[in-house]
Structures are given as C-alpha cells and as structure tokens.
Amino acid sequence: MIKFILVFFLAIMPTLTVAQSAPDTRSSSENDTQSLLSAFMSYTDLRIGSVQRSLEILASTTEARSGKWENMKGLLSGYQKSDDGLVVWYVRPDGTYYTVDKGLMNVSLSDRSYFPDLMAGQKITGALVISKSTGQRSAVIAIPIMKNGKVVGAIGASVFLDSLAEQISSVLALRTDATFFALAPSGQTALHRKTERHFLDPRELGSETLKKAVNEMFAGTSGEVTYEFDNATKKAIYRTSPVTQWKFAITFSAIPQK
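Above: the chain's sequence. Below: its structure in token form.
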C-alpha cells in the first residue's frame, strides 16, 4: 500500500514542482502552500486509512476471532511483510500481547491511555506512543475483535513516525525556509520535517507567539497563523484531518525570499 501512495503522489509532483517555482507573489504563494498542505494531509490520511482498513479485514477473520495467536500469526505476519514501516500486534483483553517479530511480550498494553477505549469496542486512529516492542515513536491504529457482541481482543499496528516523516519530506521537497508539521489533539507533534521534534509540544518551546498560534489552531478547523520561532517570523496555513483529528500545517518564512 505504501508503494501505491508513493506512486500516487509522484504522479502529482509536477503540480507541486510548479507550485514551488511559481513567482513569489502573495496569491501564488498562498496557492502553493494550500497545494502542499493538501498533499501532506492526504498522504498521511491515505497511509493511516489504508492500515486501518487492512486491520479491519484481519480483525473480522475466523483466525482472529479464535483468540489464539497460533491461528492468526500467519495472517498478521503476511500483512506486516507486505507493508514497510510498521509492526503488527494482537492484544488480549487483559493487556498481554504478541507481535509478529517477537511473539508473546513480557510487558502489557493495559497501561496505554487508549486501551480502555479499545476494549470498550472503539477503533483507535493515531494514538501517539513509544512502541514497547521497538522503542520507536509510533502512531497506533487498532481494531477491536468482536465475537458474539463482545470484545475478545484487538489487532493493531504501530506506524513508525520518523520513517513516515522522511517519506513525506521526500515527496513534498519543500524549500529550505519551509517546513511541515502535524499536531495530535494532545498538543504533541505527530509529524515534523525535523524528526527530532516528534512528540514535543510546541507550546512548551519558549515562544509565546508560537504558543498563542498553536492555541488558535486548536480552536479552529483551518486557517492561518503567524508566530516567532528560530529567530524568524513564520506563517503557517493549517487544516484539521477528518481521519486523525490532527492539525496539519505548512509553514514558510513570513518575509518573502529574494
């Protein structure tokens, strides 16, 4: 699926290239940013949505509904091999879980903030965690397994955010004064061109104008904000994803390049 997404966005790269090389006028700059923002959010939503649909199919199988790891291991392993950049797992109602790579883990998922909702029958889309099995910063997508109207477990995938951000950066090919980021409802940075900023809350980085801008973003569904950061005045255009509820933004220097 990730290969399909890359092909899709490579197909529209001529449009993005034109957007980057357009004259630096106010109208063309705004159009360029909107095009890049659409590509950024669509790429991410397609990625997460494709994982969710695959997990829904797996969770509905007889193998998954059996509640026996040996019955479902082959299916989950086959899916993980077909899709780079994630780890697939199965969790029981008590929090014990298995991963394709390591089998039964000696830690539990019961302390994860999303776990009660998952065991109550809710789908999880984009919860941010440090993976217990890999140590990587990840977004969790998980689907409850239902049998006779009850939750008997769940199948999930942890999508590696550093890898996803690197793919997005390659596709967007932003100029040096620009960046992209996405904020989870918690305020944590889910995606950033500079991957070392993943999981940071920008409101805690020492800029009062950035803090105000982020709060404005969370108060709205789309728009633009201006703030001071890294010794420069930045302008960000943002939208809210209907898939994850993350705030996606593309930022440029507010002072046009010569």
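The two ends are 40 Å apart (CA to CA).
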